[in-house]
Amino acid sequence: MSELTITRVWSREVLDSRGNPTVEAQVETDAVLVTAIAPSGASTGTFEALELRDGDARYGGKGVQKAVRNVRELISPRLKGMDVSDLKAIDAAMIELDGTGNMSRLGGNATTAVSYAAAKAGAILKGIELHEHLGSSSKVLPVPCMNVINGGKHAGSNLKIQEFMIVPCGVPSFSESLRVGTEVYQSLKGVLKKSMGPMSINVGDEGGFAPAFDTSRQAMDVLLKAIEAAGYAPGKEVYLAMDAAASEFYSKGVYELDGRKMSSGEIVDFYVSLSKEYPLISLEDPVQEEGFQDMAELTAKVGGRMQLVGDDLFVTNPQRLRKGIDSKAGNAMLLKVNQIGTVSEAMRAAEICFDHGYNVMVSHRSGESEDTTIADIAVALECGQIKSGAPARTERTAKYNRLLRIEENLGSKAKFKGRGAFF
Ligand code: PGA
Ligand code: ZN
Predict the structure, then answer these.
(1) Mind listing the pLDDT tens digit for each residue in 335-352?
(2) In this structure, CATH architecture of domain 134-421
(3) Catalytic option among 336, 368, 399, 407
(4) What is the pTM of this model?
């Protein structure tokens, strides 16, 4: 038996960054034992792969013992004997074993953890870095899109827009970008504390501050102040990005945002205005998850000068992505492996994006862990962008720190697209 042969896949329940249970998978061969942890969203899209939760008395119903059992009792016997370096075959075997099309039998949390662990084990056994295992000649480090003001489901304020990000893309390297973004984060902390008091620097799920703002413009204005106070120019070194996660404030044809009720036509105009007032380089889920037409309308209006990203709209799903491409909705996809359930399928969705001129932003979830697989996926795809929250809270910085190591390891071969990753 080769040392690449899977001997067992084990699993256990561990905790995520929000104190909820999640699935850790452990892929074993005669030579290695490798673990990986699935993340978990809060503002999950309706069309995501199913995250299997026990729904019993433990952990308020959020236990994942069923998913853990599925790894031990169903996935393990199926993958036993397979070559761990052949991730596509492993992922295809899990998709076939599940048989439902949305991982509702095995659980997308179970399959994501196994797919991550198998990817890592394959890299270790081949003696190469994970990003090289996933993308043979990968050298491009991503721009960190840092969510420094948290709203929506990730915070306790009235701010309806979920994420206000800084995008330090006007600098020459990943490490410089991370430094500039982190300096702006610290500057923002000072600006908020001074103007709104110490309560305003409490942080939300993704490490961004959660001040008592009521409107989007309040958040954008304070970001401009913080960028300038840190010694940078908005629209030069540092741009802004937003994830509206609009399904969360949409109901029956009406968006309730910034103290107003808006129709889909009105909300499209609202974003067009924001894009003229601020150096906004990327806007994610501006409309609800079925709003392909509205997304197409917004793309026609501003898509020539900024990125429009589908998260809940596309859910990293090749089928939904194709629908988006056909209707010219958006020009970028957010990539979250647990939305589709395997690394291979997520990377296939990314390939479809590249074939059709769509950008890809690799993303964490609001519930995360010490696992850093997404950092390597971003480098492997050479997509040039990642979002992993603020430069605070270890589950967020773990990804950025992994990217620092990759950059150092690549040395003079490391590349950085900066603003070019967007436009
Ligand atoms: P989620 O948020 O992980 O709670 O879905 C992240 C996002 O919407 O991009
Ligand atoms: Zn999103």
Answers:
(1) 999 999 999 999 999 999
(2) Alpha-Beta Barrel (3.20)
(3) 336
(4) 0.98
